[in-house]
Amino acid sequence: MNKRTKLAVLGSVVGIGLVVVSVVTTQVRGDGNSVVPGSVNDPVVTKSYIDKKVSDLVKAELAKQQGGQDDTQLQKTLDEFRAELEQNKGGQKVEVVSVPVGKRLVAKDGAEFIVRAGKAMAYSADSNGISDLTDGTDITSGKPVPNNHLILFPRGGRGVTAQVGQTSALTVLVRGDYELQVQQ
Hints:
The protein is an alpha+beta fold and 184 residues long.
């Protein structure tokens, strides 16, 4: 190959490369304008913008399906639903309970405990124990309850009390209904 042929081939390769790079990096719209991501022609869209647009479209579609009824009935239904949720939220509130020595904290059905301070042991009037969801074990009556473990009480009448020799109150986070009982 002579020098001219080599230069012609090299020039062709460079030219084709530039065309390929130009086509790959530039998107072309139907009107011929190039679009750069994030530019005025192709803006970045935020989640809040999409949420608002979807919400507006849903409201418009609901209004259309209801035959143009005003929004008062829909608003009334939403308000009733919110009120019902607020009433049920009380059972989901976490309460910090101090259990004095000589008393036991007894759960109602579905309650959850987390012992935060002190040394606790499980209490159950029958042979069944309490569910330690953190370890995935069953803690039988009289056995230690580890601190910072989520304890579930599917049935009421079971609970926690201070271990023998404990001189200060237990601190327990409680979700659900419970009662403090005097130990016999």
